[in-house]
Amino acid sequence: MDNEQLRKTLSDSVAFTSNIDKDLFTKMGVKRGLRNEDHSGVLAGLTRVGDVVGYERQPDGTLSPVPGKLFYRGMDVEELVKGIQQENRLGFEETTFLLLSGRLPNSEELKAVEHLIARTMPLNHRATMNIMALKGGNIMNILARSVLELYTYDENPDDISPENLINQSINLIAKFPTIIAYAYQVLRHDQMGRSLHIRHPYEDRSVAENFLYMMKGRDSYTELDVKIFDLALVLHAEHGGGNNSTFSVRVTSSTETDTYSAIAAGIGSLKGPLHGGANIKVQGMLEDMKKNVKDWTNQSQIDEYLTRILNKEAYDRTGLIYGIGHAVYTISDPRAILLKEMARDLAKEKGREEEFAFMELIEKRAVEVFLGFKKSTAKARTCINVDFYSGFVYDALGLPPEVFTPLFAMARIVGWSAHRIEEMNFTSKRLIRPAYKNVRERQSFIPMNER
C-alpha cells in the first residue's frame, strides 16, 4: 500500500469511527454542547468577573426573554460606557483595571495603568524579527505563536503567584495590539506587495490610538475613530465565563499550566469561525446584499433577499443571517446598542450614511423575517448581536478584514486574564475534568494472519 492509499484508507474510516447515534445523547442524558434542553448553558462553574443576562427563569422552570445586560465585576457596562463618555474620556485602560482589580480606579491609579500599558507595548527586537520571519497568512495563528514565544522572554514564566499573574496579564494586554499590527504589516508586505511599515508605539497614547497609528500611520485617523475603536475594545473585553474561548482558558488554567499556554488555548478557540469570525461573515453578507438588493430603501426587496438567505439560495448558502441571534441575549444585545449609537456618527463622518440606513433597515427586517421563517413563538425572541455593527465600524475605520478576529482577541485578553487569575486563586478550585461515555461496542484482537 502506498502513502496515498494509506491516507485514503484512514480518511475513509472517519465516517465509521465518528458515527454516534444522535438518539444516544438523549437516552444517556448527555447535554450536547453543554447546553440544556431549553438551550441555556449547563452551569459548570461560578465567577465574580462577568455576567451575561438575556432571560429570566420563571418558577415553573421556563425562560422569559428580558432586555440584554452585560456586567463587568457587577457593574452594568452601559453605565460604565455612559459614565466614561460623559467625562469625554477613553475607557479601555479603565476597563482593564476594573476587570483585573474588581473596582474602578481613582485618577492616580488610572494614570498609572495607562502609563504602564503604553510603556509595555513595544516588542523587543527578537520578537519583532520573529514575526517578520513567520510570514503567516492568518494573524490569529501568528498571535498564538508569538504569545507562546513570550514565555521564553519571561524570567519567571511558570510562577503562578498573584503578583506574577498580574505582571503577565499586563504584559499580554499591552503587547497584543503591537503583535497584531506588526503581523498585519508583514502579511501586507509579503502577500500584497505593499511597503513594510513597522511603527514603534507611542509611550503617551492610549491602546486604541496606538493601534490605529501602528496600522495606518500618523494623521490617518480622527478623534472619533479613536473613540469608537476604544468603545469596541471596551465592549469586547469580557463576556462571562461560559463563552468558548474563556472556558478554554479556564479549563487549561485549571491544570496550573503557564499563562502563555492558557492564553494560546483561548486564541485557538476564538480563531474558530463559529466563535470569533462572525463579524467577518456579517461584513461579507452585507457586501453581498449591497450588490444584489437594487433599492436599499425597499423593504420588500430586503425581505425577499433575506428569505433567500434563509432558504440557502443566497450568499454562502448556509441558511444563516449573520449578526442575528445570540446564545444568551434574546430581546437585545447591549453591546450592539452602544456600538450602534456611535457608529451612526462614524457613518456621517465617513460619508456612509446611506449604507448605515441600509443596515438599520436590514436589522429591523432580519429579525421579523427570521421569526416568520422559523414560525417561532413569542418567547423565542431573537435580536441583532454586536457583530452586526462591529464589522461595519472596523471597515469604516479603514481596518482590513484580516484583523477583525484578532481585534476580538486584543480586547478579550483582558477578560481571559481576569478569568485565569480567578481560576488559579479561588479556594474551591479543582482540575476541570468532565466525563465522556464510550458507546463503541467491544472488539477482540484478531491475529494478523486472520485479518
Which terms would index this structure?
19 helices; 4% strand; 3-stranded antiparallel β-sheet; mainly alpha; 451 residues
Describe the structure.
By secondary structure, this protein is mostly helical. It contains 19 helices and three strands. It has a three-stranded antiparallel β-sheet. A hairpin with a 2-residue loop joins strand 2 (63-72) and strand 3. Helix 15 (299-310) packs across helix 17. It starts with a helix and ends in a 26-residue tail after the last helix. The relative contact order is 0.13.
Give a nutshell description of this structure:
The protein has helices spanning 3-12, 14-17, 22-27, 77-86, 92-101, 107-120, 125-134, 139-153, 162-192, 207-216, 223-236, 244-253, 259-271, 278-292, 299-310, 334-349, 353-374, 387-396, 404-425; strands spanning 50-57, 63-72, 75-76. By secondary structure, it is mostly helical.
SSE topology sketch:
Layout: H1 3-12, H2 14-17, H3 22-27, E1 50-57, E2 63-72, E3 75-76, H4 77-86, H5 92-101, H6 107-120, H7 125-134, H8 139-153, H9 162-192, H10 207-216, H11 223-236, H12 244-253, H13 259-271, H14 278-292, H15 299-310, H16 334-349, H17 353-374, H18 387-396, H19 404-425
Antiparallel strand pairs: 1-2, 2-3
Helix pairs in contact: 5-19, 6-9, 7-8, 8-9, 8-13, 9-10, 9-19, 10-11, 11-16, 11-19, 12-13, 12-19, 13-19, 14-18, 15-17, 16-18
